[in-house]
Amino acid sequence: FYLTPPQVNSILKANEYSFKVPEFDGKNVSSVLGFDSNQLPANAPIEDRRSAATCLQTRGMLLGVFDGHAGCACAQAVSERLFYYIAVSLLPHETLLEIENAVESGRALLPILQWHKHPNDYFSKEASKLYFNSLRTYWQELIDLNSGETTDVREALINAFKRLDNDISLEAQVGNPNSFLNYLVLQVAFSGATACVAHVDGVDLHIANTGDSRAMLGVQEEDGSWSAVNLSYDHNAQNEHEVERVKMEHPKSEEKSLVKQDRLLGLLMPFRAFGDVKFKWSIELQKRVVESGPDQLNDNEYTKFIPPNYHTPPYLTAEPEVIHHKLRPQDKFLVLATDGLWETMHRQDVARIVGEYLTGVHHQQPIAVGGYKVTLGQMHGLLTERRARISSVFEDQNAATHLIRHAVGNNEFGTVDHERLSKMLSLPEELARMYRDDITITVVQFNSHVIGAY
Amino acid sequence: AASMFLRLLSDIQWRAGHPKWRRMTSSQRSTSTTEPHPLSLPAQAQVVICGGGITGTSVAYHLSKMGWKDIVLLEQGRLAAGTTRFCAGIVSTARPVSIELKMAHYSNKLYQRLEQETGVQTGYMKTGSISLAQTQDRLISLKRIASSLNVMGIPCEIISPKKALQLHPLINIHDLVGAMYVPEDALVSSANVSLALATAASRNGVQIHERTSVSHVTIQKGQVTGVETDRGRIQCEYFVNCAGQWAYELGHSGEEPVHIPLHACEHFYLLTHPLKEPLSSSLPTIVDPDGRIYIRNWQGGILSGGFEKNPKPLFTEGRNQLEIQNLQEDWDHFGPLLSALLRRMPGLEALQIMQLVNCPESFTPDMRCIMGESPTARGYFVLAGMNSAGISYGGGAGKYLAEWIVNGYPSENVWPLDLKRFGTLQSSRTFLRHRVMEVMPLMCDLKVPRWDFQTGRQLRTSPLYDRLDAQGARWMEKHGFERVKYFVPPGSDLLDLGHSKTFYKPDWFDIVGSEVKCCKEAVCVIDMSSFTKFEISSTGNQALESLQYLFSNDLDVPVGHVVHTGMLNEKGGYENDCSIARLSKRSFFMISPTDQQVHCWAWLKDHLPDDSNLVMEDVTWKYTALNLIGPRAVDVLSELSYAPMTAEHFPSLFCKEMSVGYANGIRVMSITHTGEPGFVLYIPIEYALHVYNEVMNMGQKYGIRNAGYYALRSLRIEKFFAFWGQDLDAFTTPMECGREFQVKLDKGIPFLGHEALWQQKQNGVYKRFTMFILEDHDTDMDLWPWWGEPIFRNGRYVGKTTSSAYSYTLERHVCLGFVHHFDEKTGEELVVTTDFINQGEYEIDIAGQRFQAKAKLYPFSSLFTQRRRKDEVELSGYQRE
C-alpha cells in the first residue's frame, strides 16, 4: 500500500490550524505574531486535545496541549474548561463582580475568552450547563475570598489547575440525574489527561505543566543557529525530582511499590495528571461510585480494578509546575507538544527544523560570494541543499505540520523520506499505536520587534 | 588632421582617465568627480544618436564611414557602460534567421579588423564555437543552421561528440548526439569594441558627449526637429534611439510616442578565477542549448551564463537610471544553470568563483531586434532590443541602419527586424512583461516548424472566435490576431494535437488534408478577418491619381472590379502586395497582409499628397472577412442572397455589395487568395455571427465545413501563389516572381518603380521565383522542408526557399524559392533566364540532406482544372444518388 504525496499531505494537513494575531493600525502590538497547530492521531479516536484562546478581560494569550489516557474524555473536558478557570483566576475582583451580577440579573455576559479553534476541536454541548455552574461556583468563592491583592499569574495557574481537577472529582462523586451526563462525568474522572499550558502576556511567559507534555523555547543565537531551552519538566519516572516528590508524600514502607517499571504504582506513566480518580480517591469512594454508577461503568474492568499497593491515596495530583520566563528578542518561538513528538525527536532538532522553517518562510537569506573563496562545486552543493529545503518547506504552510512531517518521516539522515512517511501514515489503526503516539503540536511565534521594545 | 587629433584628445579624455573600462569585472562605478564637459553641445546637427553602447557607437561609426560628418552621439552615463560593458563578448554567427546571420557575419569581420583600424585593443580572438546537441531534434536544428552557414561561405561543420572533445578537452560528451563547430566565431571585449567604434567615429568627425541625457525628442508635423537634453537643445533632422533597455521609455517621453516594444530581463553569468593551469584563450566557446548555457574562456577561467526557464523581468514600471548598477546576484536563481555547467564540465567543481554578474538585457516580442524608422515620425530611427546578442549583431545592425538613414533603405531586406512590424498593440507593458518571460527561455528552446508564442494571446480576435473555438479550432497568432490553424474534428482522440514538436510529419497531417479536400470538392469557410483593410476616398479624382502612382497595376478599372497589385518602391520591390476593389469612382477598398497594418499605413501617409480632400481610413476592425473556398461556394452564396453568382453574373475579380441572409451591405468579392474558386465576404462586424450561421446552415447540404490557415497555405503554395512577408519583400519585383501581368508599364502614369521595372523588362532579372516539387522525399519518413532551405542547381548553390507545404493534390512537397545565377568563377550575379531555370537539375537541402526537386515557373493549372472537372463529375454523380 502506497500513499502518493498529495494523499500524504491531505492526511498531514487534515487538522492543521493557523492563527495570526491581527495587526491594529498596521502595528502589531502583541508579542505573539500567531501560532500554528496540528495533530496527527495514532489512537482512534485521538486522545490528544489542544486549546488556544485570547483572554478578553485581561491581557494575554493561552495555549495548551493535553494528552489523554484511558480514553479522551478527561482531555476533552480539560481542553474545554481549563482556560476558563485560568481566566477567571486572573480576573480582578470588580470584573468578577460584574460578571456575577450579569448572570444574576440575566444580562449579557462579558466574553471572557476568544477561542481559536480548528473545526474538529469541539465543545460538549450537553455538559456546558454543568461546567458553567461549576465555574460560577468557583468565581463566587473567589469573590467571597477577595484577597484584594493583584493576581499573580503563577498562583492563578496553580489554583485553576487544582480547582478544575477538584471539580472533575466532585462532579463524579455527586453524580447527575441526567444519565448521559452522569456517565460523562464519570468517564472524565476515571480517564486522565496531562496538560501543558502557556500564558503569554507581553514579555512574560508562564508555562504551567502537569504531566509529560513539554514546552520548549526556540532561541536564535547570534550566529543564526538555533538552540532549544526547556520551559517545563516532565513529570515521569525519568525526572528524579518527581520520583523524590512522590516518595516524600507517602510512607517509606511504600517506597518500593510507588514506582515500578518507570510507572506510578507500576501503572501510570505521567506522575501528575487531571482526572485519574483511581489514583486519587480512597478505595471505598471508588467502590461506592462504581457500584452506584451506571452499568457501563460496572462492566468496565479498568474502572473496577484497584491499583496494587494502594494504601495512602492520593498518589496523583493535577497541580502544575509553573515556570516563568521573560521573553528576549532572541526567543523566536515556543513549541508545546505532547510526548508523541518528544519520543521521536530531540528538542535540538525540533528547534532547528522549526527555526529554519519560520525564517525560510519569511526570508531565505540570499547567498553572496563576496570575498569568500567558494568553488563551483561547493556553491552547487549549497544551492541544491537550499532548493531541497525550500521545496519541503513550501509543501507546508504550517510549522506544526512541518514538524510532524519530520517527526514521522525522518530517515536516519534527518531528512524527510517520502516512502517512510507513506508507510507510517498508511498503518492500519490497530498497528499505528505501536509505531507512534498521538502527536499534538502548537508552535507560537513571537514578535521580536515588540519584545525588543519592552 | 592635426586639429581633429586635438579634439579627439580633449573630447575623449575618458580613454585615459578611466582605464577601468578595460576590465569588465570592475563592478564599482568610477567615483571620479564629474569632469568639466570639454565641449559644449552644438546647437544643431544633422544626426543625433542617443546611446553610447555597442549599437549607438556602431551607427555613429557607419554613418561617419558613409561620409556623414555632422553627427552628435549622446550618452547619459559613460560610453559602453550599460549592457555593453557587462556583455559576455561572444560573437556568434550561428543564427537561424538569415538577416541575423548576415549581421553577425559582418560584425565578426568588422571586429576582426577594428583594432588595426583604430589602434584600440578589442581583445578579438578567433576561438570558434561548438554548439552541442543532447537530442536528435536539436541536432536537426543545428544541421539546418549549418546548411545556411555553409552556403554563405562561412565555415561550419557538424561534428561527432568525440571530435567536440578533441576541440575542448573539458566537456563531458556522454549525453551528446552531435555538435556544430563554427571555427570563425570569436570573442571580444565588448566594451572595447564599442570604444574602438567610438574612437573611429570621433576621428571621422562625430562629436561624442558623455553624461548628457536626452529628455525627449521634439517632433513637428511628423518630422523630427530636435532633441532636448539636460544640457540644452540640439536641432536635428535625424534622431537615432539606441538607448537599449531605456529605448521604450525614451520613445514614450515625447508628446508623440514612438512605440518600441522591448522589455528588460535580468541576465546572469558567472566569472571564475583561473584554473590551476589557466585555460587557453583560444579554447572554443561552448553553447549547450539543451542545458540552456554558454561557456567561454575568460582570463584563464571561464565565463558561463544562460537563459533560464523562469526569467526575472525588471523595470516593467519603468525606472530610468544612469548606468546599470550592479544588480543583486541571485545564486538560487542561477542554481539550475550552475548544475548544467557542472554537468557539462564536471572537472570545474574545484574552480573558484569570482563573481556572479547580473546584467539586464532587453528582449523583444518576437526575439528579433528592432531597427528602422518610426511609422509616425520621419527621421526618428531606432536600433535596440538585441535579445542578448548585441555584440553579435551590433556591427551589422549599425551598418544597415546607417544605410537606411543615408540611402533611404538598407542593402538587405530587413523587414523581419523592421520597427514597423509592430504597432501600438505590442507596446502594452503587461504584454511585454509576459512575452519576454516566454522569449528569454525560447532563446534556448528547440524551435520546430510552425511554433508559436503562447503568451500575450487572444488580444485581437474575430467576433466568431468563440464559435470557432467551440468547434475545435486550434489557433496561431499574427500581429496579435488569433487565426485558425485547423479544426480538430469532433470525437478526435488527438487531445494533445499541436503540442507534439517535430521536424517530421506533423500530427495534423490528415486533418488539414481533409480540409484541403473539402476546399477542392465542396466548400469551406475560413475566417480571414485579420487582413489589413484600408479605405481610400476623395472628393475628386485625387484617390485614383495617387493610387495609380503608388501601385503598378492599372486601377482605373470599372467600378466593382478588383485588382491584384504590388505597392512598389523606387527599385520596383514589393513594399506591399494587395488587392484593391474600386468601390466607386472616387473610393477604393484595399486588402493587405495582416502584418502590413503599420507599414502600409506609414508608406501611404508618406507618399499620398497632403490633401484634406483625400481621406484614408483603417477599417480593419470594422469588417469580419469570411472566405468561402470551393466549387460549391457559388451555390451557397446564391441561395443565401437570391442572386445569381455564376461566372456570367459574378465574374472573377469582381466586387459587389449584396445581402446575405437578413444582413444587407455585405461586400462580396470573387477572390480567394488561393486560386480556388470562391468568394470573400466583408461583413460589418455586427452581422458576422448572423452571416456565419446562415452560411453554415445553408452550406450543410453542400458539405460545408470550417477550415484553417494550414489548408489555405497548402492550397496557395501548390498553386504557386507568393505571399508578401514570406516570399515577397522590398527586394523582389513583380518581374522576378512571374507577375509581369500585374504591372502596367504602359498605363500612362510613371508609377513608383516604373523605371526599375522597365529596366528589368529590357535586361532581364537576376533572380527568379520558382516552384519546386520534391521528387524523392518520403513524407512519412523524411524531414519536412520549412523555409530557408538552400537550393542547389547542378550541385551549385543558387538560392533559398521562402516557403513550403505539402500538396495534397500532387501528393508531394512543394517548395517555393528564388533561383539566382552566380558566375561560376567570379560569383557575380548574372541574368536568370527561363532556360537557366528549366535546364537545371535541382536539389533542396533539408538539414544537410539533399532531395531531388523539379523546378517549375508556372503552376499546374491544367492538371488542377482537369482534376477538378473530374471531381465535379464524381460529386454531381454522388449527389444524384
From TrEMBL, chain A:
Entry's EC annotation: 3.1.3.43
Compartment annotation: Mitochondrion
Keyword tags: Acetylation, Calcium, Hydrolase, Magnesium, Metal-binding, Mitochondrion, Protein phosphatase, Transit peptide
Database matches in PROSITE patterns: PPM_1, PPM_2
Gene3D superfamilies named among the record's database cross-references: PPM-type phosphatase domain (3.60.40.10)
Reaction(s) this enzyme catalyzes, per UniProt: O-phospho-L-seryl-[pyruvate dehydrogenase E1 alpha subunit] + H2O = L-seryl-[pyruvate dehydrogenase E1 alpha subunit] + phosphate
Record GO terms (molecular function): [pyruvate dehydrogenase (acetyl-transferring)]-phosphatase activity; metal ion binding
Enzyme class, spelled out: hydrolase
Co-factor(s): Mn(2+); Mg(2+)
Domain PPM-type phosphatase residues, every copy: 32-446
Protein's job: Mitochondrial enzyme that catalyzes the dephosphorylation and concomitant reactivation of the alpha subunit of the E1 component of the pyruvate dehydrogenase complex (PDC), thereby stimulating the conversion of pyruvate into acetyl-CoA.
UniProt name for this protein: [Pyruvate dehydrogenase [acetyl-transferring]]-phosphatase 1, mitochondrial
TrEMBL record, chain B:
Top-level taxon: Eukaryota
Entry annotated with the keyword Mitochondrion: yes
Main location: mitochondrion
InterPro entries listed in its UniProt record: FAD-dep_OxRdtase (IPR006076), FAD/NAD-bd_sf (IPR036188), FAO_M (IPR032503), GcvT/YgfZ/DmdA (IPR028896), GcvT/YgfZ_C (IPR029043), GcvT_C (IPR013977), GCVT_N (IPR006222), Rhodanese-like_dom (IPR001763)
Domain Rhodanese: start-end pairs: 47-90
Gene Ontology CC, one term: mitochondrial matrix
Location of the protein in the cell: Mitochondrion matrix
Keywords from the named record: Mitochondrion, Transit peptide
Complex formation: Heterodimer of a catalytic (PDP1) and a regulatory (PDPR) subunit.
Family label: Belongs to the GcvT family.
Function according to Swiss-Prot or TrEMBL: Decreases the sensitivity of PDP1 to magnesium ions, and this inhibition is reversed by the polyamine spermine.
UniProt-recorded name of the protein: Pyruvate dehydrogenase phosphatase regulatory subunit, mitochondrial
Protein's organism: Anthoscopus minutus
Gene for this chain: Pdpr
